Amino acid sequence: MTNDTVLLGGLGVLVLGGVIWFAAQRLVDSNLSARAKRLSVYLIIVGFVVIVVMVMRWHAENYIAKSQAANEINTSQHLN
Questions:
Q1: pTM of the full predicted structure?
Q2: Whether the Cβ atoms of residue 5 and residue 63 lie closer than 8 Å to each other
Q3: d(Cα 26, Cα 31) in Å, to the nearest integer?
Q4: CA 54, 56, 61 angle in degrees (round to 5)?
Q5: 32-53: burial string, b at 16+ Cβ within 10 Å, e else
Q6: Of 29, 56, 59, 80, which has the fewest Cβ atoms less than 10 A away?
Q7: Are 6 and 61 in contact (CB under 8 A)?
């Protein structure tokens, strides 16, 4: 299971999305000015997008590494 980056990354993004939604709701209900609320929510959204991109990059790197390892194994088997 620790090698399943799609499952782990997806679960992490869902949990983070819930935490971000909760934080955004708390911000909207706070006593901050409208501009501060709006900027805070925008920063939270940008942070979420950055984290999603990082998770996708992590998954892609793992996928490429596994594919290269499998290709090297298949190549060495055909040479022997």
A1: 0.71
A2: yes
A3: 10
A4: 95
A5: eeeeebeebbeebeeebeeeee
A6: 80
A7: no
**């998770």: which residue's tokens?**
55
Q: Residue 1 has what DSSP assignment? A: -
Encoded tokens for 36: 């501060």
Instruction: Convert the pLDDT of each residue in 12-67 to its tens digit.
Output: 889 999 998 898 889 888 898 999 999 998 999 999 999 889 988 988 888 888 88
Contact in structure between 43 and 23 (CB atoms under 8 Å) = no
**Position 18, amino acid:** G
- Quick one: angle between helices 5-28 and 34-79, nearest 10? 180
Structure tokens belonging to residue 24: 């955004």
